[in-house]
Amino acid sequence: MPLNLHFVNAAAWGSGKLVGMTEHQPHPSPSLLRRLAAIVYDTFLVVALVAVVNATALAVVVRSTGGEQEVLNAHLVQLLTVGSVFGFFCLFWLKNGQTLGMQAWRIKLVDYQGNPPSAGKAIVRCCGALLSAACLGLGYLWCLVDRNHRYWHDYLSRTELILLPKAAARKSDSQLTN
Q: Count of domains in the chain?
């Protein structure tokens, strides 16, 4: 049986040791179409969140200046936007490894051992996703040629996306309603 070799933890990464993992992983990687659908769902939520955060900041500025300043500083808008996006993804990933879009499409983020990501890995993944997008999206397109179907930020954060079986998705939904 062929082995799929990759780095699985910081100790192995630093030492240059490769650890083998069989090709038959318990959960397959989600298709590109499924990933894109989850991204579209989450984009609508993130855009709404960014609008609310910036509108709230503008209301605070207008109120605190007595209406003399009706525009937010561009750097503040950028900071609030990046903070809102990072906060959205990190909080959802830390809670259960899934954003709302990922839940709808049965995608889950786990580390290489199958555990939920740590706060550090979630932050590194967000920074890596920004880098993947900044390189004309090449970091995202990488999953099309990578044999593990991972993005650049998956490798940077030592995390991966898995496709949950339909039964697990229903069980997860029932736990949310109880």
A: 1
